[in-house]
């Protein structure tokens, strides 16, 4: 049959227009697309040969071969897969069978020529991507089990030709006649075998069939020889059976794949079958990346579809609080060409993500239960992420519920990590709430004057020493039915009878000393919001508390570090009425609220409370002088 010229279907033409007018900035994807098609064609033949072995005609060595010719400016991609008949070439290559094509092109039309790459990316152009880099494409194909072959040729401009030809073995060979900008240039040289080798390793390493190329090397006698090498590793670790994979193999894989220096802490390898099929290979790295909590950290998983690499750093699977997780997802239920935008809306991605999240949390809970040391190592490195997760999901009870049992804080009981459940388990019967305290370290917290009475009552306190701890606790507010109460807040009180009695006595005293307390406040000035008496101190004279809803002293520090000096804690100076200093204070007050001695005394009381909190008094020199005066009396 002579050469036959056919028109592309209107939609194909339109699509080709878009491709040729180079909508893709990522030129190299053509190789991935064509290799993926070749691999699919072999898959099909392999599948059909299961019931019709004769189709293989004795050639069972499936392979993809890639060849370049600098002079002719060509790349060819050959496979010994199923091949196509003339009719199939017309229907597969000349038309677009994919559903949604029309709607897609309509959408592009609606965008009035403003074609953005994201939009295009939603629709895979597959074979047509060859035209991104080619001025002419030839496809020679021979269907398995048949003798005749056909050659398809097109410049991508509205029509293509078909002619019968010779091909001595089954399968498809695609010859790309490259546009000159893709040959020999600095940026692109797709006729350079090493460039192609790298692209194959990058995008198609895990294709199940060998991708072979010829490389020119020298033999012992310095003579040039051609060596055929398989470029891809062919072995997607994650598709192998879990039981057959050695720990070292996983470790090597992660180091290689995710550029880690150290072995991961934990590896999760999950396979799901059924309505949604996927394999995920995830890990918790040994250490948190130095920029893990900074804007320039790029979280996300690698995405594969049928072992073909689609994209890196896909953020849509896991919630932000699992940003430290590295790994990949491979699912045949995701299309090869999927834009980042489309991924966000993909129901499959959401479902896979939810399942992965659930699984990771389950595994973490398991580690916490079975291997405390390991969990604490994890927690020290990545606990902050989970705490940020609680805080960032302030209004999401489900997330908070999922995370609450994974949280740990240092307890004043033994300076060790404890979970909220363990804390509650140890609570004395009379204790109704969970107590926590903010401070720079567990040591400073255990030395706080408020701690004395708590220790007497056998009550331990959770130390909130990481700035994010307090934000997380505030978001949580409760653990199961137990309120969480800060001992640095004005509303702090204990629930046992003795404490309640002491509290009501102090309230009485407070009433009878209202004038004194007001004058103390006036003497100290605007820095404090209130002065009052407390039943919460034993041997300590004073402490600082902060008013209910507002920021705490620690939050004030955090905000100040973030250049927000306006978030101020409302400071309350609390005085122990049973302390000797209170009697002295009352005595000095009797001499007159304007006396220098009374004012100095008030200042020193406040300075003490500040120092206990690790805060430098503003008038530190004055305070030092006042102390010196007192000492020399
Ligand atoms: P997709 O692969 O997503 O279906 P393509 O445009 O890449 O879209 O390919 C269209 C069709 O052409 C394929 O579905 C397949 O039937 C056929 N095809 C493409 N490449 C080959 C090949 N190397 N061997 C056999 N058939 C092929």
Question: What does this entry look like structurally?
Answer:
- The chain is α+β, with helices and mostly antiparallel strands.
- A nine-stranded mixed beta sheet has the order 1-6-5-4-7-3-2-8-9. A six-stranded mixed beta sheet has the order 16-15-18-17-20-19, sandwiched between helices. A five-stranded mixed beta sheet has the order 10-11-14-12-13, with helices on both faces.
- Helix 11 packs across helix 16.
- Bound molecules: adenosine-5'-diphosphate.
- The site of adenosine-5'-diphosphate has 14 residues, from helix 2 and helix 3.
Helical content stands at 25-40%
Number of strands: 23
Indicate the proportion of strand residues. 15-25%
Shape: elongated
Topology:
Elements: E1 4-7, H1 10-20, H2 29-49, E2 64-69, E3 74-79, H3 86-93, H4 101-110, H5 117-121, H6 130-133, E4 134-142, E5 149-154, E6 159-165, E7 171-178, H7 193-204, E8 211-218, E9 224-230, H8 247-258, E10 266-272, E11 278-284, E12 301-305, E13 308-314, E14 326-330, H9 340-345, H10 347-370, H11 372-392, H12 397-403, E15 408-411, E16 417-419, H13 420-426, E17 434-438, H14 442-446, H15 451-456, E18 462-464, H16 467-476, E19 478-479, E20 482-486, H17 497-512, H18 514-524, E21 530-533, E22 542-546, H19 553-561, E23 571-575, H20 580-590, H21 596-612, H22 620-632
Parallel strand pairs: 2-8, 12-14, 17-18, 17-20, 21-23
Antiparallel strand pairs: 1-6, 2-3, 3-7, 4-5, 4-7, 5-6, 8-9, 10-11, 11-14, 12-13, 15-16, 15-18, 19-20, 22-23
Helix pairs in contact: 2-7, 10-11, 11-16, 18-21, 21-22
